[in-house]
Amino acid sequence: MTATDRAVELVTIAAGAAADKLATDIIAYDVSEQLVITDAFLLCSAANDRQVKAIVDEIEDRLRKAGAKPVRREGERDGRWVLLDYLDVVIHVQHAEERVFYALERLWKDCPVIPLPEPVIVGRPGAAGSAGGVGLLGDIGVSGGLRGARGVNGVNGVNGAGGAGGAGPRLRDSR
Known about the structure:
With 175 residues, this protein is an alpha+beta fold.
């Protein structure tokens, strides 16, 4: 079984909305074979709590225009990790630090990646040729970018080369 056409459509719309609000490290997984509760996960990162809220608001607006309403919303009060459940699609908008710490990509790495349109992945932090992607080691550079030995989508980062952070204090997660 693969994700439904509707799930892929919603993921694409949500990814575009997130990219328009400068979300980073946007990736979608087809989890339909592992989970019965949803077909797809969309993950994206934000640099701060305000940006998390802005991304969530834009995703909700766009999906509402496409005829979809969330059945559940979690984490909006804290603004560090907001989960939007649309039944067919579950969207995770995470503060960059939570993204590194929880590393949801490790849980779903065996699931097929749902291809996203070029405007979503090109020119965004974490994409090939840009700085500031999320890596799994969780080093945070002064420039605001996160860097790691492995990028979010496999060996070299999200859809291309891993991002590069600036020189700065190293923060490690406790795992």
